[in-house]
Specification:
It is built from 28 helices and 24 strands. By secondary structure, it is of the alpha+beta class. It is elongated, with a radius of gyration of 41 Å.
Length: about 800
């Protein structure tokens, strides 16, 4: 039978749990028929690494021990899976070694603490394995209960050796005593003292009593072999292989150095002897044949009694714990491939052998990302690299940057003919009447929107940016919602008549509330498109409202109208901006709201709410037909200041519609509580650059302070610690170097086409000179009034005909 033990990240066993596991292993080694040869009565621990995982921990042994070993004292922190036999392809270069205990046979191995993990040296020794080179390293530790007769014979031998040594020591001491006495009597000084004293010497030499051999203490002589309890015999075999010459030998030397950590009074030493540059051991005749037989059949036949107690094997009786630093292998985090839509660039990982590789996460598993760190630490650069890689792979995205710095940085790397038709730039940082500005009508119905969704999105955007709610500003919400419902109904009628250029905009709310003539025409034009409750409100409630109650609604609209850029952007009847169409057609949309003032926050709130509405409208598509889309939000503090509830809803709802948000912020603590909780709860990737310890504690606490804030705060620029989700499990936190565009995407750099891309992106967004758009916005009220008058004139004959009975 074979069992594979997979520990969870928080696996942290105590000494007693590990000891109990050792007792189970010793007991399971006897789960064989009485007639089975003793060499087969063993349980084998296999520590294996082939470059696909840091370390595979397997238990193999008699089939009768499977039930005993399936339930471990480690509890739910370790998952026990039934494992299949491992079949290795032949390698070109293979080295073998057998380790035996040398030193004082009764002395124990060194007591290795659990923190750091005793397996850490072994894992470090195999951390740079490369699967593509055929590297393989495996350690097999066979555990067998000590035979009683062999143990008694060994004790008798040790006691006999101890008594012989004691007798030899006593004889040596007696010889030295006699020599000393004889030397004294024959000395000149002793003879002179006899002459001076006048006393004759005795009839012979003095009688010297030799020392008696002292009693041998069994505890001292037998050491760890004094008691039968938990004493086992072990066999340690190692095999390293590779298809590249020299790598297997170097790996064996690393493992030998790792096993030296366990050395104390006795130590693990490689069996064999060395003659000049040659070593005669398990790789050569006559030992190789026996080694391969034991390796293939799992026989436990150590060449000499390797007796150990279970507490000496503490470090090998368990899988890696929480105190073990595991390397990041290609199988843990895939290597980024340019143009692959299934991968999302994350950064550059430096392996223990110094190799650097671009690593990625799987796009379908990267649902939400959060990046935290000080300004200039590399958050935006990493997000730009990820967005550019995603764009060249054919993915759609939206990059929202209030400060516009990201656009000129990304421009030369996106300036490719294959991308130009997919890129749109919405830039509200215009200066001068000749500047190019896009256009958008939040109330426009020419793009097939649903009327009540448009009304709700626009009203919620105003409420979010201005802090309105049902308790603090119920009248303002009611007035604005009713006014928007009328204007949207008018726009529905205009689109139905094919007159898109006669649609009302948000600036016509003022005329609707303060101009009786326009209000009457609008209500007449919206007749039949408004529900009974809205019509009743305009007929009964509105006339009773005082004039000053409209100020709270008109004030933010007046601020939007006072800014020529926002007036031009929002004052067009049929704007080009359509985020729903951009999502479905894999567009690359760059949005630069223009700042973080009150007017800018209102624009940001309108855009964010429209994005939320557009994403939720994807429910009309089957899930398989929803094209993945990635919004990137730089400066989350600025964006959430305008629409906190909207941003929080994005992190909660967008996954269902295959829209995945990437957010970056300097301080997670400055985000609204609702946004912060949704971010951390749903994030597939958590990343942090350097910053103050108090600022990044909220991220490191999610990692269990491994690494702690003091480690993350000392990172260099462009260095990140991040945790990712790969194949349904968390990887990391691992140290990643943020990708630099000039280095990673050098082959995509097209500075000579940047100007052409700028013109194309503005044209795709419907940008026009600011003066032209301002004139259109100024004359739009007249166009709407003219359409309503024409609509009323065409509706009057129909009403008269209906009264005469012709309809």
């Amino acid at each position: 039978m074979a069992l594979e033990l997979v520990p969870l990240r928080h696996f942290d066993p105590g000494l007693e749990e590990i000891f109990r596991r050792g007792v189970q292993l010793a007991r399971a080694s006897t789960s064989m028929p009485w007639w089975a040869p003793r060499r087969t009565k063993a349980v084998q621990i296999r520590l294996r690494a082939d470059g696909s995982s840091p370390l595979i921990y397997r238990i193999e042994g008699p089939a009768g021990g499977e039930r005993l070993l399936s339930i471990t004292p480690f509890g739910p922190a370790v998952t026990v899976n039934r494992a299949r036999p491992l079949v290795d392809a032949p390698r070109d270069h293979v080295v073998r070694a057998e380790f035996i205990l040398r030193g004082k046979p009764t002395a124990p191995l060194r007591e290795v603490p659990l923190d750091p993990d005793p397996l850490q040296p072994l894992i470090d020794a195999v951390s740079d394995l490369r699967a593509e080179l055929g590297d393989l390293a495996e350690i097999r530790l066979d555990i067998q209960r000590a035979p009683k007769w062999a143990l008694r014979a060994r004790r008798m031998q040790l006691m006999s050796d101890a008594r012989r040594r004691e007798r030899l020591e006593a004889q040596r001491a007696a010889r030295w005593v006699r020599q000393d006495a004889t030397g004294v009597e024959d000395s000149l000084g002793w003879q002179l003292r006899q002459l001076v004293s006048g006393r004759p010497s005795g009839g012979g030499r003095r009688l010297v009593m030799p020392p008696v051999p002292r009693r041998v203490d069994p505890e001292e002589a037998l050491g760890k072999l004094a008691d039968d309890d938990h004493l086992v015999r072990v066999q340690l075999l190692v095999m390293c292989a590779s298809n590249t010459e020299g790598r297997a030998e170097a790996r064996l030397a690393q493992l030998q150095a790792a096993l030296d950590v366990f050395g104390g009074g006795s130590r693990w030493a490689m069996r064999g002897w060395r003659v000049g540059p040659w070593r005669f051991g398990a790789d050569r005749w006559p030992s190789r044949r026996g080694f391969e037989r034991r390796w293939r059949l799992g026989h436990c036949q150590p060449p000499r009694p390797n007796w150990v107690r279970l507490n000496e094997l503490t470090g090998l009786l368990k899988p890696p714990t929480v105190h073990c630093r595991l390397p990041l292998l290609a199988g843990d985090l895939p290597t980024f491939e340019f143009g692959n839509p299934e991968l999302l660039l994350q950064g550059i990982y430096r392996s223990p052998d110094g190799r650097r590789r671009l690593v990625a996460s799987y796009a379908e598993e990267t649902l939400f990302e959060v990046g935290v760190g000080r300004a200039g630490g590399g958050k935006t650069e990493r997000a730009l690299a990820q967005a550019i890689g995603w764009a060249h792979a054919g993915g759609g995205l939206m990059f929202v940057d209030p400060h516009r710095d990201s656009w000129p940085r990304a421009l030369p790397f996106l300036a490719h003919d294959a991308l130009m038709q997919r890129i749109a730039l919405v830039d509200l940082n215009a200066h001068g009447t000749s500047s190019q500005v896009g256009s958008w009508n939040p109330l426009g119905m020419h793009q097939g929107q649903t009327a009540h969704e448009v009304v709700e999105a626009t009203a919620d955007a105003f409420a979010s940016a201005l802090g309105w709610d049902d308790a603090s500003a119920p009248r303002a919400l009611t007035i604005l919602t009713a006014a928007l419902a009328v204007l949207v109904a008018v726009n529905e009628a205009a689109c139905q008549a094919g007159r898109w250029e006669d649609q009302a905009t948000v600036f016509h709310v003022r005329a609707l509330l303060t101009d009786p003539v326009f209000r009457a025409a609008a209500l007449a034009g919206a007749e039949g498109r408004l529900d009974q409750e809205t019509r009743s409100w305009w007929q009964t409630v509105f006339p009773s409202l005082p004039v000053d109650s409209f100020a709270v609604v008109l004030n933010p609209i007046a601020r939007l109208a006072a800014n020529p850029v926002t007036r031009a952007f929002l004052g067009q009847p049929a704007g080009v901006y359509n985020i729903r169409a951009a999502m479905d057609s894999r567009m690359i949309v760059w949005v630069c709201p223009g700042g973080n003032g009150p007017t800018d926050r209102l624009i940001t709130a309108l855009l964010a709410r429209d994005l939320l509405r557009a994403v939720r409208s994807r429910r009309d598509l089957p899930e398989a037909q929803r094209v993945p889309f990635r919004p990137y939000f730089d400066e989350l503090i600025t964006l959430t200041g305008a629409a906190p509830d909207t941003i929080a809803s994005m992190f909660e709802d967008f996954r269902k519609y295959r829209v995945h948000v990437h957010g970056m912020t300097q301080l997670l603590a400055r985000l609204p509580i609702a946004v912060r909780l949704s971010l951390v709860q749903n994030a597939s990737t958590l990343a942090s650059t350097a910053g103050s310890q108090s600022a990044i504690t909220s991220i490191t606490s999610e990692w269990g302070d491994q690494p702690g804030p003091e480690v993350v705060s000392a990172l260099d620029r462009f260095e990140h610690y991040m945790s990712l989700t790969v194949r349904g499990r968390r990887v990391g936190p691992v140290r990643i170097t943020g990708p630099h565009l000039d280095e990673v995407f050098a082959q995509y750099f097209r500075p000579h086409q940047a100007a052409a891309l700028e013109r194309s992106a503005r044209a795709t967004a419907g940008a026009a000179p600011l003066a032209q758009l301002t004139a259109t916005a100024t004359n739009q009220l007249g166009r709407v009034s003219g359409f309503l008058a024409q609509l009323a004139s065409t509706a009057a004959p129909a009403v008269r005909l209906q009264k005469k009975g012709y309809q």
